[in-house]
Design brief:
- It is a multi-pass membrane protein.
- Keywords: Membrane, Transmembrane, Transmembrane helix.
- This is AI-2E family transporter.
- It comes from Companilactobacillus alimentarius DSM 20249.
- It is built from 17 helices and no strands.
- With 350 residues, the chain is mostly helical.
- It has a domain of 168 residues.
- The protein is globular.
- Helix 11 packs antiparallel against helix 14.
- The longest helix is centred in the middle third of the chain and has 42 residues.
Length: 350
């Protein structure tokens, strides 16, 4: 038996080797990370929608499900860009301006409690950090064309895949019978693991972010806070960060609340964040995540810190799903069939 045949027969070794090669390829193409992740996210959600409809109407072709949905999304995007993006930019600028004025006001320095915070912020050079953050925002806005291009391409790719999902699956199965079918068999194995962990966790975190944003926005409306659109967008983005996102959002919300209603409004914000965090911890996570991602908070924060250092901003969003994916591969923490059934029952109940 040749060395190649021995390698192919050793399933554990060949799968480990293939996984390493895939990681190396992803690292080499890390500049296209946004395109890959956006395409996967759009495609996963689209295919889930197709399967949901086909469970009730089996004869419906995917293209008849996807086409009207994508047309509605495009129409909504055009409406939002034309009507709300200018308001978002204006409200964000006003929010930064009001926070800067509040930070530099005499009221902060005369208040003994706020003065402690002011001195601490001086020690960490908040001014320079704000300027650096503003510079990053300007650089991000200047590269919005590239970001928009990635979103458009990802949107189109997800549409083509979802509308022909049956043909794509049939075409993919042909590779399993090829000369190097073992390669594609192992890729299929990792692909199924990837979808069952990464996709499900990402979908669940998206649902949690939507619920958190809705609850926060309703509370902010009752408090008559300024810049609701900008604050809602900020809360939604931060809510995509597991566990830490809700806590991080408390800092800017507290500053804005103090400029509007003083310490009383800050207390309202803190109480709101605590309630939302309790809802997320004891209701949303058990319901949406089920039993597959009950990770200790220590591991959650460590994974977020390490993934942000390795991947960047995307790491805060996809760090936990990737970690769960590797746990699944190692056999430490996997998604069982019972978990999938719970997800289906949950979706039906919703």
């Amino acid at each position: 038996m040749s060395l190649y045949d021995k390698f192919v027969d050793n399933k554990r070794l060949r799968r480990f080797t293939l996984l390493v090669l895939v990681i190396v390829l992803i690292y080499l193409f890390r500049g296209m990370m946004s395109l890959f992740l956006l395409t996967f996210t759009f495609t996963f959600l689209s295919v889930q929608l197709v399967r949901l409809v086909q469970r009730k109407f089996p004869r419906v072709r995917p293209i008849w499900v996807i086409t009207p949905v994508y047309l509605i999304i495009i129409a909504l995007l055009v409406f939002v860009i034309a009507n709300y993006v200018p308001q978002l930019i204006s409200q964000t600028a006003k929010m930064f301006s009001s926070l800067q004025k509040f930070y530099e006001s005499k009221e902060v320095r005369s208040n003994p409690y706020l003065n402690v915070i002011y001195n601490y912020l001086q020690q960490i050079n908040l001014d320079s950090q704000i300027k650096g953050a503003i510079t990053q925002v300007v650089n991000y806005i200047s590269s919005v064309g590239a970001v928009g291009f990635n979103i458009v391409i990802s949107f189109l790719l997800s549409f083509f895949y979802s509308s022909q999902v049956e043909q794509m699956n049939s075409f993919g199965r042909q590779f399993l019978d090829s000369k190097y079918g073992w390669v594609f068999s192992d890729l299929k194995y990792y692909g199924q693991k990837f979808v069952n962990t990464f996709g499900v966790v990402l979908e669940a975190q998206l649902m949690i972010a939507i619920v958190n944003t809705a609850l926060t926005t309703i509370t902010l409306l009752f408090m008559q806070m300024p810049g609701i659109i900008a604050l809602a967008v900020m809360v939604f983005i931060l809510s995509l960060i597991p566990v830490a996102g809700v806590i991080i959002s408390m800092i800017p919300l507290s500053f804005v609340a103090y400029t509007v209603g003083g310490i009383r409004y800050v207390i309202y914000i803190v109480v709101m964040i605590i309630i939302i965090h309790l809802i997320e911890t004891y209701f949303l996570n058990p319901q949406f995540m089920s039993s597959m991602t009950h990770l200790p908070i220590f591991f959650t924060f460590v994974v977020l810190i390490v993934s942000e250092e390795l991947i960047g901003t995307w790491g805060l969003i996809i760090g936990i799903p990737i970690f769960v994916f590797f746990l699944d591969i190692l056999g430490v923490h996997s998604i069982t069939k019972n978990t999938k059934k719970k997800r289906i029952k949950l979706k039906k109940s919703l």
